[in-house]
Inverse folding.
């Protein structure tokens, strides 16, 4: 049996006001997706300088942000330091979008604006051989459709990173050791949320019409797989 006692959902920004008014907040979407009463879920507002707990009994999920990991905010540098401390004591963590990027940045990767621009809406990604073998993608097809909303990408990966998924825009998922994972896509989105983001971003993304939203988000199962890794052994 796992010794883990609770999940901490780490919020890295207040979200887009247009999306919040229609769909609520990402920490709530993730809590609803987990939908389990057998362990508590705490919400940590890292962007308000709240930091997650360093404890062997906790599991972290780090969410997306309107910010970039290379922005010069004190809370971002503090969170990177906490991530390294957490890895040292084997705290399981899953990073989503910005969360995926900040874990890798803390480990030494480079994060930059993608030369291809925004990736938003439904995108096709492919699992690598390591991704097919990973328990994070258990029960998921090798080629899958996920929801995206980002313009940064991770390059120059440090040593000991396993690439689990990728597409033409770059890295889509990784693992580090046994407990640390990241996904560039958004498993917590449903089609309503994704369409709301598309509408909000249409004001700033010139080629928004090149992107579409399907009803399918195969990435949603990643969350339940991550929870199963840590609470249902």
């Amino acid at each position: 049996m796992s010794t883990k006692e609770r999940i901490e959902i780490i919020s890295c920004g207040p979200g887009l006001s247009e999306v919040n008014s229609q769909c609520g907040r990402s920490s709530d979407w993730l809590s609803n997706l987990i939908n389990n009463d057998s362990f508590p879920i705490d919400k940590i507002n890292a962007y308000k300088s709240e930091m997650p707990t360093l404890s062997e009994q906790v599991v972290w999920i780090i969410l997306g942000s309107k910010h970039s990991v290379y922005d010069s905010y004190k809370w971002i540098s503090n969170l990177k330091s906490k991530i390294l401390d957490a890895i040292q004591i084997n705290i399981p963590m899953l990073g989503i979008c910005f969360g995926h990027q900040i874990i890798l940045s803390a480990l030494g990767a480079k994060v930059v604006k993608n030369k291809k621009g925004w990736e938003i809406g439904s995108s096709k990604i492919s699992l690598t051989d390591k991704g097919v073998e990973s328990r994070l993608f258990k029960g998921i097809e090798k080629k899958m459709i996920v929801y995206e909303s980002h313009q940064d990408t991770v390059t120059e990966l440090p040593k000991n990173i396993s690439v689990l998924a990728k597409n033409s825009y770059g890295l889509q998922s990784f693992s580090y050791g046994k407990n640390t994972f990241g996904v560039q896509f958004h498993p917590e989105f449903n089609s309503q949320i994704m369409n709301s983001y598309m509408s909000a971003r249409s004001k700033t993304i010139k080629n928004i019409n090149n992107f579409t939203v399907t009803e399918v988000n195969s990435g949603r199962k990643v969350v339940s797989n991550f929870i199963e890794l840590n609470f249902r052994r």
